[in-house]
Amino acid sequence: MFSSQYFTEAISTALEEEDHTDRDQSLHTTYALVMSINRSVPGLLLNVIPQLADQVTSDDVSLRMLAVTTLGRMFGEAPSKLAGNASGEGSLARTYPDAWRAWVGRHADKVAQIRVVWVENLRGILIHHPLLVPEVAALMEVKLQDPDEKVRAAVARLIGSLDYESALHSTPTSLLKELGGRCRDKRASVRAESMAALGKLFDLAYPQIEAHDTAATEHFGWIPKVVLDVLRVIGTESLVLDTVEKYILPFPSNVEDEAAWTSRLLLVLKCAQSPDDFAMKALWSMANIEDVKRPTLFEHFVDICQKYNGGIIDEDEEKVKAMLKDLIKKTAQALGEQPGSDRVAADLLAFAKLNDNRLYRLLRTSMDPKQELKSLLKCRAELLKRLQASSNASVIDTMSKFWRRSSFPFFNRSSVGPLLRTLQNGKTGLVKASQMDDKSQSTLKVQDYDAFVVNAQKLLEHVAAVLPAMFVSHISDLIKCLSDASNSVALKIALRAIAAIACSEPAALTLVKEKKVIDRIAEFVLKGEPMQAKFAAKTLAVLADANARRRSSKGTDGEDAAVGRFSPARTALEEIVEEIARKLGKASGNRLVGYLHATTQIIKHSPDVFEDKSQVIIKDVLSFAKRPWAVAKQEGAAKSESAKMEAGVADPADERDWIEDEDMDADLQARLLTLDVLTKRAEAYVNTEHAAHTATPILKFLCTTLEYGEPAKIGTPRYARARLRLRAAEDILKLAKHEIIDKLIDAPFFTLAFVVQDESYGVRQNFLRRLCNYLSRHKLRPRYNVIPFLVAFDPEEENQKMVRYFVNRSIVGLPQFYRFRWLEVAFARFLHLLAHHPDFNRTSAEDVEQFCQYIDYYLDATSSSQNISLFYYLAGKLKSVRDSATSAANDNIYALSELAQLAIKRKTAQRGWVLDAYAGKISLPNDIFSLLPSKEVQKRIIEQQYLPDGVVKQMNDAIEKVQPKVSGDSLLFFRFSLLTIAHTRRNALLSLDRRKQLQRPRAESASSPPRKRPRRARRRPRGLLTTKMKRWKGRKTGKAL
Question: What is d(CA 364, CA 224) in angstroms, rounded to the nearest whole number?
Fold first, then answer.
């Protein structure tokens, strides 16, 4: 009673203080005394705690916050042995249930800061009072969706502060999964705290996960997948990289322990695996193991910094400064600088002004793929140390990101050796190595071997393809793999890596050039598995090629010739070609597939060796490609397709419209490879005078296969026709990379373009992926940029997302000149492509309305208030030309010209943009358009309306409906834009002088700009199809829509 009276008077006295500082100090002193008594003699607080319960609902915010803090700390106190019988888990909450309920109710306090304080005081409860955990854990899930970002961040910070045991037993999986969802929160602070919390928990749990503790694996093993999946959100790269570096894949404290570090990498990949292999691709991106042109952007930046010389430039000063400015802009963008910010660019300029040659050498060493982890970390430490002595914190942070984006932090030369040894030892070696551990753990490790070997194989295959220099120091290990034919996985990796090194650094293959090694490699060409034959043939062909380009930047012409004319390799290759020529026509199964794989590599890398037997081999290839398709019955009896059709027996496989790679038999693989052989044959002659003569019949063969799914009527099953269409389309794209061959792709261009609307989902997706890959690397001419926009009606959202991602990257990453050339001016080509669409009928209002959605899709992706006038200009200009190939498409072109103009006007009205006259002058592509024969013809075309009247009226009504209210000259302009097509045509016939008068600049209006209205949601039915659009009926499952 006396203690209650004392605290009541103390609080009342404190609240009467006029000075806020004295008031707060008195309250803090009083509540600190309460907490001290609670630790020692909690029985004295029998009447005090109810008072605290009343104060947590007080209208005084500061008093309420202090009461919430005090009660929270008291509820979270560790059970004290000195407190007598009243002690125990959750004892205070059980003793004062009303106070507990009052305190718990503050999770929904109207003041965000009090909710934050409530969350912060949960830590003691989670650690010391498991009985109270279920109730507060459920409320923590609710608080992770609190409208205030500070509360959500506080919950994430609280979870991240727990130790392993508390996190394992006091945080339900549902709570952690909800925290994983906050990694994509719209607020950066919440994302950062959530990522850090999950990363810390995984780092704490890693020893138990590695030891295959079931509880730890189930509770925390999914964290790497969630962290890496955040990379799917644009703008999160830096945050994910920080989390991975600190917690998921931290650099080892002992840099000599490469095996343990690599094992953690494999375990993380196993935990993060997904059907689309996104984690593996994310790792490639973070580790900078990508197929990029070298020297890279970062290497160019270091070079220009050295030329800049701190601002003291001896010659070409203006040129050097302009290059530095341009490279700083591109490098800042690559480091994640947001639009409107220039901090990273300023830091890069400050670094350039330091003019420290030692820093340049450290960066160049870090960007060398031949460096090991120890060397990379040493360079990084010295780099940051030197920067700390001469730069501010911002420059240090930027250059730390620069080092991480330009070097190889998560996978490097040190990772290759342990992975190779893992594959070499095989499962038997893993069993022997694990026998020293606990028996149960040993069994679990062996079970993990399959997952580990798959990830190791993918990593090494990718590195061999894009950065073979990492294998150079491991050539002796690669040669050892060749001696064990039973280990097919390690053998395939070794052959692939040796072939890649032969292409990039043949001088490094001293050990491979020994005759016994050459003979061993040649044996794999003739007797090995198909992929072994491919890479073995590639190695021999590269080493035997006397006329190959210089592959070593340090080699002289004489050295290159010596490499090319290396006699053991050339002799072996000539013998291989002889045997293939003798046996190809009679081969079957995997042996036939291996011969064809080897042939493609020989044609590509050593065409002169192939030439002697080219006619014989090509004849056999064509003969096999046109061989009737044999279908085997389930009982094992073979029956030709024609015989089965006569008997009226349907093969169940024919109902499938697609077959995955792993399910393809040797016969189908061989037929696909025949197309590759012909494609390589055409590419071999690209730089000769016979290029067009050789490529023409090959293109004809490919186009026939593309159109019909088979080179001749040979009874090909439906699923095989789909695969053949896809391979023919991909091979035509490969040939289109060569300008001299691309000029031959005229009429076949439309057939190629409409592959993105193939009835098979597998054909559509794989072709679109290959096309976007080539376009993003600028390997195709601008006309191919319009093909992806044909996915406007694709029933699968994945393909549309792929195109949007490609366009967004192109718009953000390309300079204005290239955006203008490749995406904006290409609009005329897109309309020309639609005019040749087999489903377009300009007299059908339904068809016209549907094709308007193609135009809307293109404009949604590429248009803005700055370039909308250009699109309108291009659409209108189509009525001044005709199709250069066929007159049958002219009316369609003119109808689409009118439709595009109406669509642009509607979009302009919806967005509140101003459709000014385009000031420039652009000529339409002369390869698809030609001028009209006379002015009279042009006049007739302009005056004629090609769209149905109903469509024109409907579009004009839509424009009128969304027209914003404007005044002055803008109103006159919009009235002009709402005139009919006929009025627009008459204006187009005015004289040049009169046209200039109409287009003279308007006077500046003093009125406010037009009010921008929100855009109406435009309904686009998913997979809107017509009965004629047969190519759209296929989905993933192969069933009709």
Answer: 31
Considering only residues 316 and 346, tell me which one the structure prediction assigns the higher pLDDT: 346
CB neighbours (10 Å) of residue 913? Answer: 19
Residue range 185-211: average pLDDT? 94
Q: What is the pTM of this model?
A: 0.78
Which residue from 246, 294, 291 is spatially nearest to 400, judged by alpha carbons?
246
Peptide bond into 295 cis (omega under 30): yes
pLDDT at residue number 18: 63
Which comes out higher in pLDDT, residue 697 or 1040? Answer: 697
pLDDT, tens only, 20-73 = 677 677 777 877 888 887 777 777 777 778 888 888 888 888 888 888 998 899
- The tokens for 268 are 């993380």
Distance CA 664, CA 667 (A): 8
Say if residues 746 and 752 touch (Cβ distance below 8 Å). no
Whether 359 shows a pLDDT value over 50: the answer reads yes
Name the burial class of residue 713, with classes exposed (0-12), middle (13-18) and buried (19+) by CB atoms within 10 angstroms of its CB: exposed
> Where do we find the tokens 């003739």?
526
* DSSP states of 374-442: HHHHHHHHHHHHHHHHHS-HHHHHHHHHHHHHHS-SSS-HHHHHHHHHHHHHHHHHHHHHHTTS-HHHH
User: Which residues make beta-bridge pairs with 931?
Assistant: 881
The string of DSSP codes covering 568-605 is HHHHHHHHHHHHHHHHGGG--HHHHHHHHHHHHHHHHH
CB 625 within 8 A of CB 711: yes
Containing H/E element for 929?
Answer: strand 929-931
Q: How confident is the model at residue 164 (pLDDT cuts 50, 70, 90)?
A: very high
User: Three-state SS for 154?
Assistant: helix
Q: Are strands 630-632 and 929-931 parallel, antiparallel or unpaired?
A: unpaired
Nearest alpha-carbon partner for 225 in 269, 290, 259? 269
Do the beta carbons of residue 711 and residue 705 sit within 8 Å?
yes
Residue of 386, 366, 392 lying closest to 378 (CA atoms): 366
Q: Which residues contact 286 (CB under 8 A, 6 or more apart)?
A: 240, 241, 244, 409, 410
The pLDDT of residue 729 is 97
SS3 632: strand
Q: Which of 534, 468, 477, 533 is nearest to 501 (CA)?
A: 468
φ, ψ for residue 326 (rounded to 5)?
-65, -45
Helix (DSSP H) and strand (DSSP E) numbers for the chain: 53, 4
**Highest mean pLDDT range out of 46-55, 184-193, 229-238?**
184-193
CA 64, CA 53: separation in Å to the nearest integer? 10
**Which amino acid is located at 703 in the chain?**
C
Per-residue pLDDT of 379-407, as tens digits, reads 999 999 999 988 788 899 999 999 999 99
- Half-sphere exposure (CA, 13 Å, Cβ side) for 404? 25
CA distances from 753 to 704, 789, 1012 (A): 15, 10, 37
Whether 1034 has a pLDDT exceeding 70, the answer reads no
Q: In whole angstroms, how large is the CA radius of gyration of the chain?
A: 35
Give the model confidence (pLDDT) of 248-258 as tens digits.
999 988 888 88
Half-sphere exposure of 738 (CA within 13 A, CB side): 20
Residue 287 has pLDDT above 80, yes or no: yes
At 159, the amino acid letter reads I
- Please give the Cα distance from 925 to 934 (Å, whole number): 19
> Residue 627 contacts by C-beta under 8 Å, 6 or more apart in sequence?
714
Q: What are phi and psi of 632, to 5 degrees?
A: -95, 135
Report the residue count for the chain.
1041
- Helix, strand, coil percent values for the chain (each to nearest 5): 70, 0, 30
At how many degrees (to 10) do helices 2-15 and 20-40 cross?
A: 160
Mean pLDDT confidence for 547-576: 59
Whole-angstrom distance, CA of residue 614 vs CA of residue 609: 9
